[in-house]
Amino acid sequence: MRPASPLRRILPPIIAVALFFLAWEVGCLVLGVDEFILPRPSVAVAAYFQWQAAIWPNALQTLFTTLVGLALAVVTGTLIGALIGYSALLYDALYPLLIAFNSIPKAALVPVFVIWFGVGTLPAILIAFLISFFPIAVNVATGIATVEPELRDVLRSLGASKFDLFVKVGFPRAMPYFFASLKVAVTLAFVGSVVAELGASNRGIGNMMVIASSRFDVPLVFAGLIVVALMGIALYAAFALLERRIVNWAYR
User: Fold this and answer.
1) How does pLDDT run across 154-183, given as a tens digit for each residue?
2) Residue 39: what pLDDT?
3) Burial (CB count within 10 angstroms: exposed 0-12, middle 13-18, buried 19+), residue 144
4) CA distances in angstroms from 222 to 17, 37, 197, listed in the order given
5) Running DSSP on this structure, what letter comes out for residue 106?
6) How many Å separate Cα 120 from the centre of its chain?
C-alpha cells in the first residue's frame, strides 16, 4: 500500500476543525446564545488579540510545567514499565498498585500538594507528571511483555539470554506502544497543569482563566482554552512526526 501524501494527511483534519468552528459560530448566531454563556469563536479570537500580551506569559508557564511534568513521566514511566514488563514477578506485584494509584482523582491531590509545597509551579508539575505517568508505564510494560512465545523460544534455542531478549526484542517491540502512549500522555499533562493552576498557582493559563471568570470575562476564558488546545495539537503533531521517524517500520 502506498503511503498517503502529506496533503492527504493534513487536509482532512483542517477541514474538520474549520467545520467545527463554523458550526459553533453559526449555531450561536442562529440560536442567539449570549456571549456570557457561550461566546462565538470569533469573539474568543477577538479576546485573544485584545489580551495576547497577558495570555502568552501564562501560556508559556503552562507549557513549561506541562513539559517538565511530561519529561518526568517519560523517564519514570519508561523505567517502571520496562521493569514490570521484564519481570513477571514485578508485573504481578506492582500492577495492582499502579491501578490503585491511577484511580485516585488527581484534582484531589492539588490541595495536598499546596499544603506540602505551597502555591506555585511545583504542584502543577507534579499533577502533570502523575496524570501522564500511568499510560506510559502500562504501554511500555505491555509492549515488552507481549513478545510472542514462539519468538522467545527460537531466540533462547539460539543462545539468547533473558536480558538479550529484553534489549534486542522486547524494548524495540515496546517503542510503538511507547509513542502511542506519549501522544495520549502529552494531552493529559496539559489537563493536569491547567487543573493544578486553577487553584494552586499564581501563574499559567488556569490561573488566568480563574481571574477572567471572576470578572465574568467568558470570551477570555475561551481564548485561554483555545490556546491550550493549540499547544496540545502542536505537541501531539511533534510526537507523531517523531514516531514516524523512529518507528516507521511498525506501520505499513
Assistant:
1) 777 777 777 777 777 777 888 888 888 898
2) 92
3) buried
4) 16, 11, 16
5) G
6) 21
Dist. CA 215–CA 211, nearest whole Å? 7
Largest Cα separation within the chain, whole Å, is: 73
DSSP 126: H
Among 165-174, 188-197, 198-207, 223-232, the least confident range:
165-174
Cβ within 8 Å of residue 99, ≥6 positions away: none
For the chain, the residue count is 252
| Nearest CA among 42, 29, 20, 144 for reference residue 83 | 144
3-state secondary structure of 34: coil
Q: In degrees, to the nearest 5, what angle opens at C-alpha 153 toward C-alphas 81 and 173?
A: 35
Does residue 145 register a pLDDT over 90?
Answer: no
Please enumerate in sequence order all residues whose Cβ is within 8 A of that of 80, keeping only pairs 6 or more positions apart, or say none: 94, 98, 137, 141
Across residues 6-19, what is the average pLDDT? 85
65 contacts 128 by C-beta, under 8 angstroms: yes
**Cβ neighbour number for residue 2 with a 10 Å cutoff:** 4
Phi, psi of 105 (to 5 degrees): -60, 125
User: Which long-range contacts does 236-243 make (Cβ < 8 Å, 24+ apart)?
Assistant: 236/183, 236/186, 236/187, 239/179, 239/182, 239/183, 239/186, 240/183, 242/179, 243/176, 243/179, 243/180, 243/182, 243/183
Whether the Cβ atoms of residue 84 and residue 99 lie closer than 8 Å to each other:
no
Q: How many other β-carbons are positioned within 10 Å of the β-carbon of residue 29? A: 11
